[in-house]
Amino acid sequence: MSTGRVAGKRVLITGAARGMGRSHAVRLAEEGADLILVDICESLPDVEYPLATRQDLDETARLVAELGRRAVSCVVDVRDAAALSAAVDDGVTRLGGLDAAVANAGVITAGTWDTTTPQQWRAVVDVNLIGTWNTCAAALPHLVDRGGSLVNISSAAGIKGSPLHTPYTASKHGVVGMSKALANELAAQHVRVNTVHPTGVETGMRPDSLHELLAQKRPDLAPIFGNAMPIIMAEAIDISNAVLFLISDESRYVTGLEFKVDAGVTIR
Q: What per-residue confidence (pLDDT) applies to 2?
């Protein structure tokens, strides 16, 4: 008999191989959840930093198993709706059901308005916004008859006009609108849909060019990225604790929420 705040729940997590995705998986497993772990495990040509590897995904699964919970791992691109749905269906069959999904997979590019390319726009919107939609669409057939929780990871940039990564900011705002629309549409089926909005978190998502732009070309914009609380970055666990709450029954009447874990960056 599993114990914990999400005891016995089965949860899909995308972008699960490292960073916040791995943190979500471990935190949920600590509280009794079984996981479907999805990651592309491949780098993208329009993203300047390397993405996770199959070894990273295997390590997340190992950490979950070490906690005595089940993990089904799938190498899938969230941009591929059919492949994602098939992987989720298989994972649900193996785990015996689905109770929640965390659309965590995301990428970021950096550039001024005149250096941002159409290819960067497409890559970021396809992963962050359409990939999040694909995740919801893959999970929902398993949730609409019994209720559940969709947690879509947005960003502080989904609330304020964060510059120098406009495709990212636009995609994260899009996640909010999509999530609120789904929250209205799915409330009658007891499916809750919420967004989480982190400030900067120390993960593998590190576009060095953004820091160079802020330091050298547009230092006047740096204050926009400053947290109100005296920290530079949050830790992944801080975001995972918000995810845990939104999946647990503690939040059973919470839907359409923009849950900020942002050290006050959006109030500046």
A: 73
